């Protein structure tokens, strides 16, 4: 029956591995969003480079079931396979390499010795009162007994777990995790012995019935034959409570069998999916008790001072509690170096910043859409030579930068206006053109180019060289009485942002005041806006700063 149980356990384990591997392929990277950390604000600042360290992930608790083989290493040969154990655990990571595990366990182990023991009255090592039926004074004819026991054990323990399987330098994470544990708790042991036959009398003539002799005992096959013979004689009922160690601390006072137990283990676990893993672990349990197998020495000549130790080899099936949308996997499955290596790789992929500006137009070559712009010509934010009136001639060559729309221009960019007409023709043409132009002006009011004004550093007074620009703006607004204009002030990146916002407001206001005062344009037709240093046209030196200290007019 025990062999069938072990076979079922191993088949179940491999079946789970196969099924989970098919249903949930192993992910390469687990992206940890700000919401999955204990301090989302700190994590957001870290991603933006405003904090040195990321926030700790909100990782899941692990709930596990374990079961396996239990044996006692003591003075009596343990049955292999024979004992079993099972239990539950709850595990929480404190950081990436250390976690705590609360573990509860229940198990049974049994054993049968192939060497006979004698009562102390016959010079043997059975000195406890439980073995009095085998004393000479009770008339036992043989005074020998082959120790046979069954021990039931249960404990609750707290264990610290150290793992190193997730500290990876050459890949994002591992499917395998190796760990060691150490802990302590409280355990209860109950040992019963098969001392009497079915009638309640001591067994007799065991040495002869088992065929025991020193030659047979010295071989593995011989010891197996002895145990098989004894097993056929014993009734398999463990009716006698075994002795217990005296003079040791027990929780609950004298007579209690609850003692402190120390545990240590080593194991390896396999990640099957984001929520499930399976592990193999070997654990030892030490309580300082030498009566776990019912006796404290094999014979009067074979006495040991070592305590009995329980060995528990088990399979652990573990599940991560909680939704993966709200919590990450436990920290011992995450690689703490992953974010660092990802940042390094991203930095390597970034293009090298090249501030070269071959044509000196204030726009670096990396984003300049017109390399080799003519020297001294004004360019837009893309580095393309400006043609303000869009007549096909760059402003640097155009003798009439703001030619009226609707007329052809000559090679100098000056609008060609017919002059050979009589007064009557002029009046007639003027009337017709006026009507047509009025329609054209009304249709094209939103298409006029409105120039920019530039300012000295930290100033907002209008320079005389820009009076013509403002005159042009006034003409357009007078020709388009239904058009409103946004006046937007800007600064360069020097000084603080709050100072620059006030300065950009004053520049826009100066332009509006000039147009209202000198041309009588209704102030309600202006939308005053200011953006400080937030939208620069250029990032290149003093020339770029001049371009950025501006007021824009937008229809």
Do you know the CATH topology of the domain at 26-30 and 58-333?
Porin
Shape: rod-shaped
How many distinct helices? 10
Computed over alpha carbons, the radius of gyration is 47 Å
DSSP strand tally: 17
Largest sheet: 8 strands, antiparallel, barrel
Description of the molecule:
The protein has helices at 2-23, 40-47, 206-210, 214-217, 220-233, 338-349, 423-444, 467-479, 497-519, 541-548, and strands at residues 62-73, 84-93, 98-112, 117-118, 144-145, 148-163, 176-193, 240-241, 258-271, 276-286, 297-299, 302-303, 309-320, 453-454, 485-489, 526-530, 550-554. With 555 residues, the chain is an alpha+beta fold. The strands form four sheets. Strands 1-2-3-6-7-9-10-13 form an eight-stranded antiparallel barrel. Strands 14-17-15-16 form a four-stranded mixed beta sheet. Strand 11 and strand 12 (302-303) form a beta hairpin. Helix 8 packs across helix 9 (497-519). The longest helix has 23 residues, at 497-519. It is rod-shaped.
In short:
By secondary structure, the chain is α+β, with helices and mostly antiparallel strands. The protein contains 10 helices and 17 strands.
Defining traits:
60s Ribosomal Protein L30, Chain: A, eight-stranded antiparallel barrel, Porin, four-stranded mixed beta sheet, alpha+beta
SSE map:
Elements lengths: L1 H22 L16 H8 L14 E12 L10 E10 L4 E15 L4 E2 L25 E2 L2 E16 L12 E18 L12 H5 L3 H4 L2 H14 L6 E2 L16 E14 L4 E11 L10 E3 L2 E2 L5 E12 L17 H12 L73 H22 L8 E2 L12 H13 L5 E5 L7 H23 L6 E5 L10 H8 L1 E5 L1
Parallel strand pairs: 15-16
Antiparallel strand pairs: 1-2, 1-13, 2-3, 3-6, 4-5, 6-7, 7-8, 7-9, 9-10, 10-13, 11-12, 14-17, 15-17
Helix pairs in contact: 8-9
């Amino acid at each position: 029956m025990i062999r069938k149980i072990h076979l079922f356990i191993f088949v179940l384990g491999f079946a789970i591995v196969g099924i989970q591997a098919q249903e949930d392929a192993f992910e390469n990277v687990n992206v940890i969003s700000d919401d999955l950390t204990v301090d989302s604000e700190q994590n957001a600042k870290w991603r933006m480079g405003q904090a040195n360290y990321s926030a700790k992930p909100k990782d899941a608790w692990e709930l596990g079931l374990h079961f396996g083989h239990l044996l006692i290493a003591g003075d009596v040969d343990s049955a292999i396979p024979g004992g079993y154990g099972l239990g539950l655990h709850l595990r929480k990571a404190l950081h990436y390499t250390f976690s705590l595990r609360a573990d509860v366990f229940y198990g049974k182990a049994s054993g049968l010795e192939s060497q006979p023991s004698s009562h102390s009255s016959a010079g043997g090592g059975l000195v406890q009162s439980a073995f009095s039926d085998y004393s000479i004074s009770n008339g036992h004819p043989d005074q020998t007994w082959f120790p046979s026991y069954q021990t039931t054990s249960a404990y609750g323990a707290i264990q610290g777990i150290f793992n190193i399987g997730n500290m990876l330098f050459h890949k994002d994470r591992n499917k395998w995790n190796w760990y060691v544990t150490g802990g302590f708790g409280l355990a209860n042991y109950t040992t019963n012995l098969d001392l009497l036959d079915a009638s309640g009398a001591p067994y007799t003539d065991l040495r002869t019935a088992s065929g025991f002799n020193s030659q047979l005992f010295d071989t593995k096959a011989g010891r197996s034959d002895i145990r098989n013979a004894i097993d056929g004689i014993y009734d398999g009922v463990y009716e006698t409570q075994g002795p217990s160690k005296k003079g040791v601390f027990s929780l609950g006072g004298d007579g209690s069998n609850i003692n402190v137990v120390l545990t240590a283990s080593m194991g390896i676990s396999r990640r099957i999916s984001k929520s499930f893993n399976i592990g193999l672990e070997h654990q030892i349990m030490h309580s300082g008790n030498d009566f776990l197998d019912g006796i404290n020495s094999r014979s009067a000549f074979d006495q040991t001072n070592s305590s009995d130790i329980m060995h528990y080899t088990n399979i652990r099936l573990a599940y991560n509690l909680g939704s993966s949308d709200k919590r990450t996997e436990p920290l011992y499955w995450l690689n703490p170096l992953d974010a660092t290596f990802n940042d390094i790789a991203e930095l390597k992929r970034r293009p090298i910043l090249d501030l070269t500006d071959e044509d000196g137009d204030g726009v670096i070559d990396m984003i300049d859409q017109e390399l080799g712009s003519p020297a001294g010509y004004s360019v837009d934010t893309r580095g393309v030579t400006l043609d303000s009136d869009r007549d096909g001639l760059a402003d640097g060559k155009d003798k009439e930068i703001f030619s009226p729309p609707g007329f052809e221009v000559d090679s100098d960019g000056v609008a060609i206006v017919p002059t050979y007409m009589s007064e009557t023709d002029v009046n007639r043409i003027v009337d017709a053109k006026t009507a047509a132009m009025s329609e054209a002006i009304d249709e094209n009011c939103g298409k006029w180019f409105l120039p920019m004004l530039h300012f000295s550093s930290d100033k907002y007074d209008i320079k005389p060289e820009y009076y013509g620009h403002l005159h042009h703006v006034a003409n357009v607004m007078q020709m388009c009485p239904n058009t409103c204009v946004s006046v937007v002030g800007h600064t360069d990146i020097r000084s603080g942002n709050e100072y620059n916002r006030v300065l950009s407001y004053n520049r826009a206001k100066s332009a509006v005041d000039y147009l209202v005062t000198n041309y009588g344009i209704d102030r309600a037709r202006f939308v005053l806006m200011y953006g400080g240093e937030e939208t620069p046209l250029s990032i290149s030196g003093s020339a770029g700063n001049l371009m950025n200290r501006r007021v824009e007019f937008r229809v």
